[in-house]
Amino acid sequence: MNYTIFWATLMLICAFAELLSGGLYIICLSVGALLVVPFAAFGVPLAWQIVVFVLTSVASIYTLRPIAHRYLHRKDEIDTISNADAIVGREGVVSEDIPAHGHGRLALDGDDWKARTTDGTPLKKGSRARIVTRKSLIVIVEGIQ
Q1: pTM of the entire predicted model
Q2: What is d(CA 137, CA 145) in angstroms, rounded to the nearest whole number?
Q3: Alpha helix stretches (DSSP H) within the chain
């Protein structure tokens, strides 16, 4: 019996399953199935096809997967900034007085953040402030003249 269609179908199923998982393991099974297709086409016995599939799949897990992983997860790429971290450096309006060494509120893009100043200086309601950093849900701001 010719198993060419079986291995080609397995290759496609594994490639599609990799799209759902993203771990880069299942694609190695797809590579193994791809490399078995010519063996099946030339009528190599099923036992040898399975041996080739297992060996090429394992080999691709140890060789191709690390290369693909390094390529897809490069260190030189800028890390993704979360929505909350993206506000650092932005300017907002003080919506509730920030007393000396105390907490007040800062309005930014429709959100109202609990805020304190970097050096403990007070800021009045309506004044503008720049967000320097964020500590959990509290933004640390500095007044803008």
Answers
A1: 0.52
A2: 25
A3: 4-21, 26-41, 46-62, 64-72
Cβ atoms within 10 Å of 68's Cβ, excluding its own:
14
Write out pLDDT tens, residues 59-77: 999 999 889 888 887 766 5
For residues 39 and 81, which has the higher predicted lDDT (pLDDT)? 39
Tell me how far apart the alpha carbons of residues 117 and 134 are, in angstroms, rounded to a whole number.
11
In angstroms, rounded to a whole number, what is the distance separating the alpha carbons of residues 100 and 108?
Answer: 21
Nearest to 106 by CA among 80, 79, 83, 133: 133
DSSP three-state, residue 57: helix
The mean pLDDT value for 39-43 works out to 94
**Tokens 């490639």 -> residue:** 15
- Assign 130 a pLDDT band (cuts: 50, 70, 90): very high
Question: What amino acid occupies position 5?
Answer: I
In the numeric block, the tokens 């007085």 are attached to 97
